[in-house]
Sequence to fold (233 residues):
Amino acid sequence: MTQLSKNARIVGFLYLLLVFAGPLRLIYIPTVLFVHGDATATAANILAHETLFRLGMVGDLFGGAVLVFLSLAFYRLFKDVDQYQAVLLVITGGIIPCTLYFVNVVNDAATLQLVKGDDFLNVFSGPQREALAFLFIRLHYQAIVAAEVFWGIWLFPMAILTIKSNFLPKFLGWWLILNGICYLSLSFTGEMYPDYADVISKYAFPFQLGEVAFVLWLLIMGAKEKPVNSLAS
Fold:
């Protein structure tokens, strides 16, 4: 295995860890524990499944940490293709989203404190604490909507680097561009027209498989630099 292919597979492995960790707090926990418009039922579910809720917090911490190493692995893979785009990828895909992950863990910690009702919170009534906990859950969601901007933006330098490289197929780069546009559309819809967010998400799903295809290619195929004469022809 060449060093290039090894670097590509490291990127694929770290990206796969992120793909596995993300859905726990992003999809599974909201589906199982949160009741739309019902702060009391949501608080009761969190108390009844506190370990699961805490696992979601750990998942976010893990995802933020993985992003740091993933972005640096991307830089090592692509720095000789275009250093500017590689640095842009690190900033938009590593530093900023990582920070948002950790901020969201604080939102969840506040939610847990409120539903557990520690002694210093006795100045609030039970329904007030539940309403505040629900507010922090909504703030967590809003942080995700904001993060979707960077989930989309970082795919553009990734796509450019993929297209410009001579060791990955160009169709993956174009797919990543469509994937990035979908994330930006979801963020815009979530802020401006939240009632239509689910509709946009449904139609965007096939294009969002670009990241999955990219990860699988790196893991299975790795990267193989094409000969110069092959590129010329």
About this structure: The mean pLDDT is 91.
